[in-house]
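ok here's the first one, seq then struct tokens
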Amino acid sequence: MHYRYYKNNGDIQTMATIEENWLECVPWSGEGDDLPVGLSGMPGIYAWKLVKAVVILDAESEEGTRQVKVSEYDKNTMDIIDVVINANSYKAVLKQHRKGFTFATPTGGKLSREAWRDKFGTDALHLMAIRELLFGMNKGQNKPFKIGGN
């Protein structure tokens, strides 16, 4: 096991200890238990980096939604309905990282994108991208969650 050390209010904790504390929340069976809580895959590749367009609510249009580029998306003024994944970008990642993405469930399980779709009827990659965009990761803002450290 690899240990990383973090300062927490002046005390040094190991990553294992911090992870133990975080895992007290798992399994989760409340509202949102059908949403992914994390993903693992090719290092440095987040789901939002595969997004070609963000589908936002647009009640003033006949369609009710419209697409904007990720660079145009503003989480403070726009409501995400869905995202469009760039299929070629996704294929390029899979070509280099054949395992693809694994999505963590709130109950502590791990599912592939296909297994997630079979179990929940939704696309976990889309849901993770939406989550990351809501946290402002595309703007270099917050990470979905931060364990320890500064």
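and now the second one, same deal
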Amino acid sequence: MKKLIVGVVSLAACGGLAACGGTTEEPPTRPKAAPRGGLSPTPQEAGRRFAAEWSNWTSETILTQNERLATMAVGRARREAIAGARDPKTMRASIRYDLANRGRVESVHVKEPRGRKRKLLIVVRQSYAKDGRFDRKFDDDFRVISAEVKQTPKGWGISAWKPVL
């Protein structure tokens, strides 16, 4: 807990590293995420929404992005997303190198169309940024994700998520 507080205070004091020049202004706080997540009415929508959120982030939004992913997940996938949202190492690394990712879901294919658990194959087209700049040589990088969704009384949620390519 102490490490998390130190990491968040360090980030806030630097204002995302942009203001690390010794200002006397009040340090900004971590932005509150509007809850946009939640479980979905269909397996395909669960996969599409999770993939869209997973593939679009900046160094400033990565922790709140993991919080939103947790609201779209169930079981182990939910616990992993919550742990990612609380990981100061993730925040420090993404801010240090000013990393970002933007992506577009190309397809969601249901591999097993029956029952309360389904397997999905998801294709995402991504671009990556380092030092705040998107590099054209990484445009149209395709990622293939193997995912599982599980139906709960409140809807479908991601229960497993594994990029394979």
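notes on #2: The two ends are 35 Å apart (CA to CA). Residues 127 and 138 are 6 Å apart (CA to CA).
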